[in-house]
Amino acid sequence: MLLLRNHAAESQPRGLPMIRSLKLATAALIGGMMLSTSAVQAQQTIESAGLTILTTPLIGSDYMFRGLSQTRNRPTAQVTVDVEHTSGLYVGAFVSNVAFAGTNARQEVDVSGGYRFELAGVKLDLGATYYAYPGYDAPTGGYELNYYEFILRASYEIAPVKFVGMAAYSPDFTGESGTGIYVEGGFDMALDFGFTIGGRYGYQWVERNFARPGRNEGAFGAEDYSNVSVFVSREIIGGVIGTLSGVFTSLDQRADCFGGSKVCDNRVVFTLSRPF
Question: Organism's domain of life (predicted)?
């Protein structure tokens, strides 16, 4: 989900794929609103199979991943699907538009799976995710974007506060940059009048931050970094949730950010989502 160290000029237009994606996501949101004029249970069940299905279309002003823009300050359209069995086993998928400098990557398709359970009041999620970019071709001097991670998530609730944390490990992070480790912690707090506020702090380590002269190996393109996000969200109408977030990173926009790409600067992001 991050960037290659190659930042040559882009060779393909982005406008039409993004417009189509935004239209699809907007239609999905409107369809969801038509299901009900009030909040509804945000899931579907197939009782005979013991399955719970959660589908979440989303549109937003930017696609942020671990503090970095994946659309280079452009709008995003996304869909997430999660299917969980009563045993705790689950599979999921995520689709979004992306825009990485110097590449022809335009879509991201992730697949995930794992096991959710509770231990001593702590909800745990042991899983793995594969991040793929269909249609992407590595440019000259570039490396593969696709990678996978093993992920542990945990949450513990002391109403009205829910504490959350995660740790992710990749044996070969994006851009063939070697071992990648990410840790994150934070909280969500329910407030009066239907508002929720929250915050996250995360840190990303990568084995090879920059290319080493004379070696045929990939690199991440930026220093290890921390990121902080704060948000406020509320249902607006018909189950549609609006979220306003502030996102900050420790990377210097000019010196540390993938050769000067404008994806690391602090920003405000607004999204609309409709789980059903």
Answer: Bacteria
